[in-house]
Write a structure and sequence with these properties.
It is built from seven helices and no strands. It has about 190 residues and is mainly alpha-helical. It has a domain of about 130 residues. The radius of gyration is 25 Å and the shape is globular. This is Protein RER1. It is found in: Membrane.
Length: about 190
């Protein structure tokens, strides 16, 4: 009876602790990358190029690329859409102004930029890993998939742009005023002996 509750029972398995430490390290680096949007997107761009080169040289896995394209289109719609859609929901929270006399309310995305980047990067990582398994190489005639995706893209974007025009919002930061931080007077003024 003494051996049942001894030192061996209090010893936890190192596998859950290792997994927890790995997850914390991953989250740490993800948090450090959050303010560096340009560098994150450059890294994702290189990942996309590597994936495209792999698909091009293998001459296969077009169905995986089509699936990633549909997923990215869905992410893009979420990125361009407001958090509260005036057509679907009536909310007491911030809504888009519909008249010129309405109060300015900032555009709040349904899918924030960081989550858009993270989901895009994760999708291409998973798609890249899938290219190493021949079970995912389903033979398809890729020009049909490409034409269908282009048609789907234009129809979806036309609907999204008409929604943006109807409710008068611009989801991008193009042309909006940016405010800088406080300027230091010591760095701007020369020496007093001038």
């Amino acid at each position: 009876m003494e051996g049942l509750g001894g030192d061996g029972a209090s010893m936890a398995s190192p596998v859950p602790q290792w997994g927890h430490n790995a997850w914390r390290l991953y989250q740490h680096y993800l948090d450090k990358a959050t303010p560096h949007a340009v560098y994150r997107w450059i890294g994702t761009f290189f990942l996309v190029v590597i994936y495209c080169l792999r698909v091009y040289y293998i001459q296969g896995f077009y169905i995986i690329s089509y699936g990633v394209g549909i997923y990215l289109l869905n992410l893009l719609i979420g990125f361009l859409s407001p958090l509260v859609d005036p057509e679907l929901e009536v909310s007491d929270g911030p809504m888009l102004p519909t008249k010129g006399s309405d109060e300015f309310k900032p555009f709040i995305r349904r899918l924030p930029e960081f989550k858009f980047w993270y989901s895009t990067t994760k999708a291409f990582c998973i798609a890249f890993l899938m290219t190493f398994f021949s079970v995912f190489d389903v033979p398809v005639f890729w020009p049909i998939l490409l034409c269908y995706w282009i048609v789907l893209f234009f129809l979806t974007m036309r609907r999204q742009i008409s929604h943006m025009i109807k409710y008068k919002y611009i989801p991008l930061n193009i042309g909006k005023q940016r405010y800088g931080g406080k300027k230091s007077y010591a760095s701007g003024s020369g020496s007093r002996g001038d």
